[in-house]
Design goal:
This protein has helices spanning about 1-15, 245-250, and strands at about 20-25, 30-35, 40-50, 55, 60, 65-70, 75, 80-90, 95-105, 110-120, 125, 130-135, 140-150, 160-165, 170-175, 180-190, 195-205, 210-220, 225, 230-235, 250-260, 265-270, 280-285, 290-295, 305-310, 320-330. By secondary structure, the chain is mostly beta strands. It has a 4-stranded antiparallel beta sheet with strand order 1-3-8-6, with no helix packed on it. β15 and β16 (about 180-190) form a beta hairpin. The chain is flat and about 80 Å long.
Length: about 325
């Protein structure tokens, strides 16, 4: 028996086992200089240089802007394959570099790192790409300027601009040259408190689709500011959870603040659409800042949603509503 084991060990040690081997023709794809593109697409080629079946697993891009796929996923010795990728460059300018990791069953090289490079220049230079309004109170108008320039020396060709909201007004002003213009933007604090997420679309003459969009983001606040604007509970595995941790999971806090220094606020009578929810109102700074603690007495059995209502002394905003979602996850 001992002689048989020793002989088998020598046999195994002296054997050459078949194995797959992944080889890419190139591991760097350089687009060089490119312009006026929102996406770039290319193909890496590879083959199985080994003597066993190669199994290529799902590629892992370095960012969400890159999508990649391989075909075929299984290659016999000598067979070739392709990895096709697309990178969403959006309005990026300058040199970009993205990566893709390709795992396989190659024992010597279990993963291969691929690199994508490009030097992007856009025909239109727009600054800023996004207008961040921040918090704007009702009745206030905030002004911004967007500078746009065509980089290839031709006339700008900007015919008109369209806003997706009447609260965001945009007008074109001539620039210092035919290749330039300024877009004057006025964001008006009008309507109910809400998130601002609008677009200013730039059109060339006769075009049915915009050649560029400027994003406008911010928040319209009333005389009262609420943070967070929505409460969310995520409850799961509560039966095996320690009591102290469960209590923290079932508790949420809302901060209510006056936004105008000359207008004190009184918060009273918190109420909720969920009968089992307990609300505790406390004064942090009289007339200015309040806290509401929302507690669930026990872990809920199913998901639900509703609203917390807070009453104020302000005619402009007599009721402040805070929506909530309770999401129950069961294993």
């Amino acid at each position: 028996m001992k002689v048989f084991v020793a002989a088998a060990s020598v046999l195994v040690a002296g054997s050459v086992w078949a194995a797959p081997k992944i080889e890419f023709d190139n591991t760097v794809y350089d687009f060089g200089k490119t312009s006026n593109v929102s996406t770039i697409t290319g193909t890496f080629t590879f083959h199985n240089a080994g003597d066993a079946e190669l199994q290529v697993r799902k590629p892992a891009p370095s960012c969400g802007c890159t999508v990649a796929g391989v075909k075929p996923e299984v290659l016999k010795p000598g067979e070739k394959g392709e990895l096709v990728f697309t990178v969403n460059v959006g309005h990026s300018t300058g040199v970009i570099q993205k990566g893709i990791t390709v795992p396989s069953n190659d024992p010597a090289t279990p993963s291969v790192a691929l690199t994508i490079r490009a030097d992007i220049s856009q025909i239109y230079s727009v600054n800023p790409q996004t207008i961040v309004v921040g918090d704007i109170t009702q009745g206030v108008i905030t002004n911004f300027t967007v500078q746009i320039k065509r980089t290839d020396g031709q006339s700008l060709g900007l015919d008109h601009v369209v806003s997706t909201s009447p609260q965001v007004r945009a007008n074109i002003e001539a620039g210092a040259s035919p290749q330039e213009a300024n877009i004057k933007v006025a964001v008006e604090g009008e309507g109910a408190p809400r998130r601002i997420n609008e677009r200013i679309q730039l059109f060339a003459a006769g075009a049915g689709t915009p050649f560029h969009e400027v994003i406008v983001v911010g928040r319209l606040v009333g005389d009262v500011s609420v943070v967070p604007e929505r409460l969310v509970w995520g409850v799961g595995n509560y039966e095996r959870m320690p009591a102290s941790r469960l209590e923290a999971m079932l508790t949420r806090t809302v901060r209510i603040s006056a936004t105008k220094p000359d207008m004190p606020v009184e918060i009273t009578n918190p109420e909720t659409t969920l009968a089992d929810m307990k609300l505790e109102l406390s004064v942090v700074e009289s007339g200015r800042v309040y806290m509401v603690v929302a507690k669930l007495p026990e872990a809920p059995k199913q998901s639900t949603q509703g609203t917390i209502k807070l009453h104020t002394n302000l005619p402009s905003q007599p009721v402040v509503e805070v929506p909530f979602n309770i999401n129950v996850f069961k294993n």
